[in-house]
Specification:
The complex is a heterodimer. Chain A is an alpha/beta fold. Chain A has 12 helices and 7 strands. Chain A has 2 domains: 169 residues, P-loop containing nucleotide triphosphate hydrolases (Rossmann fold), CATH 3.40.50; 85 residues, Helicase, Ruva Protein, domain 3 (Orthogonal Bundle), CATH 1.10.8.60. A 5-stranded parallel beta sheet of chain A has the order 2-3-6-1-7, sandwiched between helices. A two-stranded antiparallel ribbon of chain A has the order 4-5. In chain A, strand 4 and strand 5 form a beta hairpin. The longest helix of chain A is centred in the C-terminal third of the chain and has 18 residues. By secondary structure, chain B is mainly alpha-helical. Chain B contains 8 helices and 2 strands; from the N terminus they run αβαααβαααα. The relative contact order of chain B is 0.18. Classes of the chains: A alpha/beta, B mainly alpha. The interface between A and B is medium-sized, with 28 and 21 residues.
Chain lengths: 317, 194
């Protein structure tokens, strides 16, 4: 199995909500000292952490639409899929979610390259990029480009003969150079007649990636599906907060509807902003021993941390 | 003297064609067995159901045949989808996590609003086919009997509508059999986005 770059979460996160809540009666050993204030809210872990944890992935309609189509194209061996979204829209989380899902399937070999792992410093040479891809699949890494390509090709052919689907997910793909895109195009040329591509590539990036692809028509023409991750709606904002609290171990409501209204207006429905605001509000509430996060508390948080955005709340009372 | 409390003597059946001569009470049995089924449909699904039954009546297709066509359409689509996926054991791609995702994947608008109960008559074979589909989708994401039928209606309406405005395809074919041939010809699922 490919080496993972994601810090995979421990199994307890996946437990059903009933079980999670049942565990709150005794203090779990995994709670860290700085998290201890969450305990009084019936939480086993911070619900609004900004780290990439697929267990906390809330699937809005836009996410469901995008991921259902992308996964269909991957499993149909259509080659190249693109996921686009603004900053904080949940792109990396979507990639991690797909990665985890495919990792659980025996007939898939999957690798997820985050930005930190992409050799973006050397724009002229394509070998480091190829070697990195090979490393993710635990393959040999010769020092010549043609040898490396041959190793990858034989791996993909072998996987295909074993009825396995090879999936490569690349995050922050808008930062790739043309040499890398050309390599991806070459790898997408590996295919079995009638049975589809030997390698499925998912490029994840900001809308600039679309422009980058337009400048590379040979690659752009190979895109099977584009998925766009839009900002969340007001209802989705409520659902995201409720879902994250539930996964973290709390069933009861913690935010008043008016406070969620404020979060939605300030964040404009961007998931990362929603989580950041909710986390600040939760910390503030725990320091004040507040049982419910209501509008006055939320306003104080906004005034303290986002004064430049307070104009968005004008007219809301 | 016979006992007044004893039963009347049983009438003896004479002749082999007694069954044929016996008067039949009630509605004569249908050539294909059928059964009324309770289904909950949203207002949009009901609207599409009415459009389909009205449109297909041009082809002398009864409501029962429309229900059969809808389930056949759903069955055909899911089978086609499964054939395309890597690994024969998988019914749906991993990104399809609930019924809503399936609607999105099939380029359909998910149902909204409350559902009202209707009685829809179906062939027994249609019901059996629908049971199989329900079990498969129920195991995937707890889809109910009504949700499966609703999805079938939406899918059939979408397929007919995608072949021309205002279900124009119905004017192009002469019979239900011809329509089925055109609808279920082997073709890849066309999924578009953006």
């Amino acid at each position: 199995m490919a080496r993972t770059s994601i810090k995979t979460t421990v199994a307890h996160v996946e437990a059903p909500p009933d079980r999670v809540e049942a565990n709150t009666t005794h203090l779990p050993s995994r709670l860290e000292p700085d998290m201890i204030s969450y305990e009084r809210y019936g939480l086993l872990q911070p619900p609004f952490s900004l780290t990439t944890d697929p267990s906390f992935m809330y699937l809005s309609d836009a996410h469901k639409m995008g991921l259902s189509k992308v996964s269909y194209m991957i499993q149909k061996r259509q080659g190249l899929c693109v996921i686009l979204g603004a900053i904080g829209a949940g792109k990396t989380m979507s990639g991690a979610w797909l990665y985890r899902r495919y990792q659980q399937l025996r007939n898939h070999r999957v690798a997820f390259l985050e930005e930190a792992q992409l050799p973006l410093t050397d724009r002229r040479s394509s070998l480091p990029f190829l070697r990195r891809v090979a490393g993710e699949f635990d393959l040999k890494r010769p020092r010549s480009l043609s040898d490396q390509m041959a190793v990858l090709r034989s791996f993909m052919v072998g996987a295909f003969l074993d009825r396995q689907n090879v999936v490569l997910i690349l995050d922050e793909a808008q930062k790739l150079y043309q040499t890398h895109l050309e390599l991806i195009r070459q790898m997408l040329n590996f295919e079995s007649r009638g049975a589809g591509k030997l390698l499925q590539v998912v490029l994840i990036g900001t809308p600039e990636l679309r422009q980058l692809l337009i400048e590379e028509p040979t690659l752009e023409s190979r895109v099977a599906v584009y998925a766009y991750l839009d900002a969340l709606t007001r209802d989705d904002t409520t659902n995201l907060i409720t879902f994250r609290l539930l996964v973290a171990g709390r069933r009861e409501t913690l935010f008043s509807p008016a406070a969620i209204d404020d979060i939605y207006l300030i964040s404009s429905g961007v998931p990362r902003q929603i989580c950041a605001l909710a986390q600040l509000a939760l910390i503030e509430a725990s320091t004040r021993d507040a049982e419910l996060i209501d509008r006055p508390l939320m306003r104080q948080v906004i005034d303290a941390y986002y004064p430049h955005l307070a104009d968005r709340l004008r007219g809301e009372s | 003297m016979p006992n007044p409390r004893s039963r009347a003597p049983r009438r003896r059946i004479i002749g082999a064609n007694w069954e044929a001569q016996r008067p039949i009470r009630g509605r004569p049995p249908a050539a294909r067995p059928r059964k009324a089924t309770r289904i909950y449909l949203t207002s949009k699904q009901r609207e599409h159901w009415s459009l389909l039954t009205e449109g297909l009546s041009q082809l002398a297709a009864s409501r029962i045949e429309v229900a059969d066509l809808a389930i056949q359409c759903l069955d055909d689509t899911l089978q086609e989808m499964q054939r395309g996926l890597t690994g024969s054991g998988q019914l749906l791609p991993v990104g399809v996590v609930d019924l809503k995702s399936l609607y999105f994947l099939l380029d359909l608008k998910p149902p909204t609003g409350s559902a009202i109960q209707y009685n829809i008559t179906m062939f027994t074979e249609t019901r059996e086919r629908m049971s199989v589909l329900t079990i498969r989708l129920q195991s995937a994401f707890r889809a109910t009997w009504s949700q499966v039928f609703g999805l079938g209606i939406e899918l059939l309406h979408h397929r007919l509508a995608s072949q021309g405005r205002d279900l124009a395809i119905l004017a192009e074919v002469d019979s239900l059999a011809e329509l089925k041939t055109r609808l279920f010809q082997p073709q890849q699922l066309r999924l578009t986005m953006g």
